[in-house]
């Protein structure tokens, strides 16, 4: 008999949130939706809440509360509405909740994910920026509270599935798994893998968001185009699996079918394959250690025909190089990398800067953080302060180029 999970879904209206609700709806005997949260698309949130019967909903402010109530069907009892960032973290730690899907985009998701870890929940971690900004703090919280951490990012979920059984027990390992030589992180190379370098300057947000294989939120889609996403994922893998940077290898694999691999000392490589559909890793995390239906169709290898692999080109993808540098420099640099990128990507999506300025802005902020850094920030407040400081600098750089 499996236990009934009571879920809190942070960022339920996003791409991961919607996929999570799709999997959950297939298993009413296993999962109950206790709480939902969103920052925008409040009408969609109201629709999700009445469809799932969520008991609690968290919105950012008064305006969102009013929109929620206006969208709520007349005559039906509304859920308990909670409001603001503190309520979000408190809800993730709510004693009623057994599992938290951390699917907010950006460092804004850190306090909620951390609260879930500190409360010892099962944490389904999609929000990679939380680990990039606070890897040390977050993993320590998982260990100390005995939380159960399940990586949802497809690469990390693949690696988790390919690790030796003992190592993949959903707790934060303090050392690399025995017998493992390297982690091989696959990357599609995004929409600009073959575009002439001198054309990159003129690419539009729509082109950058048109990922060849995955349908995702806009921020992560741009990150995939620049390959900063893969850089964030190297940092994420470093923390999740206690793996030194030198033992994490990025491999371009344009078909996005092999989701990542683990290379062992004896020469074996284990891979996890599947359709590029996030419902597979989400279902894995929800059902762990059992396998449950995700709604994802079978992968017909013979129809696929071939799988290609190549080395990433760091000249084409300077954001990947900057990420590896940041991990080498330490925690403060990783916070600056992520914060600068969030502002630069927003600037690009809103037409304020060009695509090729994204790495320039990140590099300026990284240089600044390395010269200024007085050691690694220890607490959540220190991390958020450094994050805010970098955001201000990156925003100034975006405006300077107007
Ligand atoms: P999205 O933009 O589609 O959704 C983000 C969600 O977070 C929305 O519900 C939004 O309302 C909420 N949100 C945004 N800003 C917020 C804030 N300041 N405070 C509170 N809530 C806020 O993003 P997504 O593509 O679903 O990605 C979510 C996370 O999962 C990201 O960290 C991303 O890197 C990671 N991830 C996504 C995919 C994917 O396929 N989409 C794959 C792997 C990892
Ligand atoms: Mg990924």
Order of helical and strand elements: EHEHEHEHEHEHEHEHHHEEEHHHHHH
Q: How many domains, in number, for the residues? A: 2
With strands numbered from the N-terminus, the spatial order across the biggest sheet is 4-3-2-1-5-6-7
Cα distance spanning the termini? 60 Å
Number of helices: 16
In helices, the fraction of residues equals 40-55%
**Overall shape:** globular
- Give a count of the beta strands, DSSP E runs of length 2 or more: 11
Mean pLDDT: 95
The named CATH superfamily of the largest domain: RNA polymerase sigma factor, region 2, helix turn helix motif
Structural class: alpha/beta
Strand content: 5-15%
Kindly provide the radius of gyration, computed on alpha-carbon positions and rounded to a whole number of angstroms.
Answer: 20 Å
CATH level-two architecture of the largest domain: Orthogonal Bundle
Cofactors and ligands: nicotinamide-adenine-dinucleotide, magnesium ion
- Report the sheet with the most strands, covering strand number, pairing sense and barrel closure: 7 strands, parallel
Unreliable segments of 5+ consecutive residues: none
- Return the CATH topology of the largest domain: Rna Polymerase Sigma Factor, Chain: A
């Amino acid at each position: 008999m499996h236990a009934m999970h009571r879920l809190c879904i942070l960022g339920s209206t996003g791409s991961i949130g919607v996929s999570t609700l799709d999997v959950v709806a297939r298993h009413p005997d296993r999962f109950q939706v206790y709480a939902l949260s969103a920052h925008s698309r409040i009408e969609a949130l109201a629709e999700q809440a009445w469809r799932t019967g969520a008991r609690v909903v968290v919105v950012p402010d008064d305006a969102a509360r009013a929109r929620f109530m206006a969208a709520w069907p007349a005559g039906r009892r509304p859920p308990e509405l909670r409001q603001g960032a503190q309520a979000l973290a408190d809800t993730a730690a709510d004693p009623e909740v057994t599992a938290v899907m951390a699917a907010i985009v950006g460092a804004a998701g850190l306090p909620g994910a951390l609260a879930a870890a500190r409360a010892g929940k099962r944490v389904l971690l999609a929000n990679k920026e939380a680990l990039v900004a606070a890897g040390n703090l977050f993993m320590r919280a998982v260990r100390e509270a005995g939380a159960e951490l399940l990586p949802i990012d497809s690469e990390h979920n693949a690696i988790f599935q390919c690790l030796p059984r003992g190592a993949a027990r959903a707790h934060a390992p303090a050392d690399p798994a025995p017998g493992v030589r390297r982690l091989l992180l696959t990357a599609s190379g995004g929409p600009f893998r073959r575009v002439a370098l001198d054309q990159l300057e003129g690419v539009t947000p729509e082109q950058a968001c048109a990922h060849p294989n995955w349908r995702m939120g806009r921020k992560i889609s741009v990150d995939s185009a620049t390959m900063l996403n893969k850089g964030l994922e190297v940092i994420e893998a470093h923390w999740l699996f206690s793996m030194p940077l030198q033992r994490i290898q990025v491999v371009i694999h344009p078909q996005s079918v092999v989701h990542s691999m683990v290379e062992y000392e004896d020469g074996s490589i284990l891979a996890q394959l599947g359709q590029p559909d996030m419902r597979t890793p989400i279902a894995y995390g929800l059902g762990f250690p059992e396998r449950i239906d995700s709604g994802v169709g079978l992968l017909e290898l013979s129809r696929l025909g071939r799988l290609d692999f190549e080395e990433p080109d760091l000249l084409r993808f300077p954001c990947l190089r900057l990420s590896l540098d940041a991990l080498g420099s330490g925690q403060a640099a990783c916070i600056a990398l992520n914060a600068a990128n969030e502002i630069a990507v927003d600037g690009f999506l809103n037409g304020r800067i060009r695509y090729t300025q994204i790495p320039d802005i990140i590099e300026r902020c990284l240089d600044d953080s390395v010269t200024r850094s007085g050691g690694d920030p220890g607490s959540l407040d220190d991390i958020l302060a450094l994050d805010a400081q970098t955001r201000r600098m990156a925003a100034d750089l975006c405006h300077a180029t107007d």
